[in-house]
Design goal:
With 341 residues, this protein is an alpha/beta fold. 26% of the residues lie in helices and 25% in strands. It has helices at residues 58-62, 136-146, 165-174, 187-196, 210-217, 231-239, 253-256, 270-275, 291-305, 321-329, and strands spanning 12-18, 31-37, 45-55, 83-89, 100-103, 110-114, 119-120, 154-157, 179-184, 201-204, 222-227, 241-249, 279-282, 312-316, 336-340. Strands 3, 4, 5, 6, 7, 14 and 15 form a 7-stranded mixed β-sheet that branches. Strands 10-9-8-11-12-13 form a 6-stranded parallel β-sheet, with helices on both faces. The chain is globular.
Amino acid sequence: MPPTVVPAIPAMHREVRLAGRPDGELTVDHFTVAEVPVPRPAPGQVLVRTRLMAVTAAMRTQMAGMRLPMASFVPGEALWGSAVGEVVAAPDGGFMPGELVHHPYGWREFAAVEESRVRRLAADELPTVAAHLSQGATAWGALRRAAEVRPGDTVFVTGAAGGVGSLAGQLARRLGAGRVVGSTGSERKAARLRAELGYDDTIVRGAAPIERQLRRAAPGGIDVLLDTVGGEQLTAALAMARPDARFALVGALSSQLGGGPGGAPVELDAGLIITRRVLLRGFGLHAHPDLPQEWTKEFGQGLREGSLVFPHALLKGIEQAPRALCELTQGRHIGAVLVEL
């Protein structure tokens, strides 16, 4: 096998910074692209050349400047997020130049990353590098561990065209669900969810009250909810919950895309939760460090045999990263939204 050729390290690189906290709809004017010196890795760090990065709805919330479970972005400083790249310098010898790695400092062409925050990626684990940036581990963990999908279950997935939801329908099927229903923002997306991504029926936000549509799509009620939205959709799901239903809550897009928590408060009927013995469980990937490896094995097998697909949009060039996040918040894409640097 020929030796890996590591490209020369330039003196300067580009990074995307938050220009100011958005108040209302996110636009490209809320970002700046700055040219800055390539960082030098300190002891215990490696220098990584970023090849691909992901944008997610949670990033809109991190711009709001309020108390969150994760750190907020700071105006005037570079953003960060899930990325894949190659090691170009490793002073301590823990990594080798040319190794493919996952790291948490996207939004910049080069990153000096603590070795503890770099995860090696085997070249043959997944058919494409982009697949390493799927949100499938969240969908897999929420359905398999939090909601414990069982054969014959009726599953409702909110935000079904997003990075989590576009894989959740396929995975619910893989776990034996008898009926899978998903919500989305347009009939164009709904048609693709039904045709390609494992959904039996769909609910289109704004077409009619959510609960009325859910009663039509799942007349017998639901056993499992994978919720990425919250708000009215969570309320409707509770109204349709069967006894001993299991709800896995992984996101709150109804407030995230409005700028932060509290933007779309929801009242839950405690009487329904009690009498129907509904389990509501929050799920976050950070609490399951073993899941990425488990998911990668499952995902790789599914992609190779054709039983799973990875819907995603790919924009090219770091200067397109602001547009990528704006388009995600506008619901322009199906699946993950990635940027190739």
